[in-house]
């Protein structure tokens, strides 16, 4: 790694147009400090608190009642009172949270645009270190999350525009959010009668409280995503700080600390860019993108999707064109690459199946910096050992995967794009779930 004096590093940062900053210290505020965005809200169709409506949505079949066992592997000296929270939508698309008595709680509708605190008892207290606590979901749930917090999380609602409830979730990005000082994380969860279960570790937005997951099905098979090592947040942030010292980009500012300087979480670069840092990494990929466009000016890039293979070239233009695709791909920005949902990677109404197939593969290749490697002319084709081996690349994703015990867990939106037989995503999927186990604080000892 290159060694810089402070003056050299500052000069390099000025030339790159970056502002060198360090980790961000949180300062939790009140409801007035909440920034409501589409990324931190869950909307439902239900308006008001009718007990009849609530009762009519409760499960009548035991198949809908999913047991979730939560194993506390956090050392007693490093943890306070751990609490679990479950949110989602019930079978009728109503917003629900799991109440402390094990039933669904339906937040009342509101016309307020200012977040209103939910005062119901929603915490599911976990046992001491080494113990396992089991909760049972009363019904099927979609668009759900199981939150685990070292402390107490606050929940709020705002209007959904029609007098209904839009649930405001904790924000990992806002240092003034009321929950900013709490160490928390979540497992994404959908469990429906028609589709079965989909659960996954997601680090697409941030890394926080260390979690892992295991799924047992009714035929006895087990799927696991062990998650990160117990000290991963501090290690990831140390790596991000070192990367800033190396290239001058604001990787270190992805980390948030509490008032004592202890690391709480690390943000994904796309979330940092979206949070009023539009110019961060603005020219980070420029030379790499130009080299990609030049390389595939006449030599073809093959996108090997499940539905078929597509040949792509730039032809010396500013647009990458792929056979069968209804539209081409302009040169992406850093935000386009980190987020995979804007610019050339945005999915628009009317896009054909070829475009839907190509976008994830192409964006994954940019994040992993595999397009100019030997064999990179076929995507996806290279093994995970070739991901993130050259710069520029998504160092956040690289560090997250480095500290994952088994390499599984989404670190950007299309982390499920892999060559045959590999799985970087950490998704647990089955039509016949029997139970879900979540570990807190690192994997259980074998």
UniProtKB/TrEMBL annotation:
InterPro entries: Glyco_hydro_64, Glyco_hydro_64_fam, Glyco_hydro_64_N_2, Osmotin/thaumatin-like_sf. It comes from the Eukaryota. Residues 63-442 form the GH64 domain. CDD domains: GH64-GluB-like (cd09220). The keyword ATP-binding does not apply. Keywords: Signal. This is Glucan endo-1,3-beta-glucosidase. It comes from Talaromyces proteolyticus.
């Amino acid at each position: 790694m290159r060694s810089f004096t402070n003056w050299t590093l500052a000069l390099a940062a000025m030339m790159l147009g970056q502002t060198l900053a360090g980790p961000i210290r949180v300062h939790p505020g009140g409801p007035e400090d909440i920034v409501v965005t589409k990324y931190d809200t869950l909307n439902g169709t239900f308006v008001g608190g009718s007990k009849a409506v609530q009762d009519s949505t409760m499960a009548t079949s035991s198949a809908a009642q999913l047991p979730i066992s939560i194993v506390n592997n956090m050392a007693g000296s490093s943890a306070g009172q751990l609490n679990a929270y479950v949110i989602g939508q019930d079978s009728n698309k109503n917003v629900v949270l799991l109440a402390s008595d094990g039933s669904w709680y339906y937040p009342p509708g509101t016309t307020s645009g200012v977040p209103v605190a939910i005062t119901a008892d929603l915490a599911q207290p976990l046992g001491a270190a080494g113990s396992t606590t089991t909760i049972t979901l009363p019904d099927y749930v979609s668009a759900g999350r199981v939150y685990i917090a070292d402390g107490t999380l606050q929940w709020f609602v705002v209007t959904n525009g029609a007098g209904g409830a839009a649930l405001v979730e904790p924000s990992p990005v806002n240092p003034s959010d009321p929950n900013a000082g709490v160490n928390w994380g979540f497992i994404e969860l959908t469990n429906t009668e028609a589709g079965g279960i989909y659960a996954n570790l997601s680090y697409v937005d941030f890394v926080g409280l260390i979690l892992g997951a295991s799924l047992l099905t009714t035929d006895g098979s087990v799927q696991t995503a062990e998650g990160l090592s117990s000290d991963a947040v501090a290690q990831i942030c140390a790596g991000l700080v070192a990367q800033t010292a190396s290239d001058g980009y604001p990787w270190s500012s992805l980390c948030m600390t509490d008032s004592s300087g202890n690391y709480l979480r690390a943000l994904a670069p796309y979330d940092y860019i979206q949070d009023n840092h539009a110019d961060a990494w603005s020219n980070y990929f420029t030379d790499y993108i130009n080299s990609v466009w030049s390389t595939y000016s006449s030599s073809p890039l093959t996108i090997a999707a499940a539905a078929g293979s597509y040949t792509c070239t730039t032809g010396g233009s500013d647009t990458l064109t792929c056979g069968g695709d209804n539209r081409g791909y302009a040169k992406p920005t850093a935000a386009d690459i980190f987020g995979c949902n804007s610019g050339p990677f945005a999915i628009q109404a009317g896009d054909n199946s070829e475009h839907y197939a190509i976008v994830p593969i192409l964006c994954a290749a940019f994040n992993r910096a595999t397009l100019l490697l030997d064999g990179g002319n076929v995507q996806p084709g290279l093994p995970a050992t070739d991901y993130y081996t050259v710069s520029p690349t998504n160092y956040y994703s690289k560090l997250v995967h480095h500290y994952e015990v088994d390499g599984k867990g989404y670190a950007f939106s299309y982390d499920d794009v892999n060559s045959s037989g590999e799985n970087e995503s950490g998704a647990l999927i089955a039509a016949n779930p029997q139970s879900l186990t979540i570990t807190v604080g690192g994997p259980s000892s074998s």
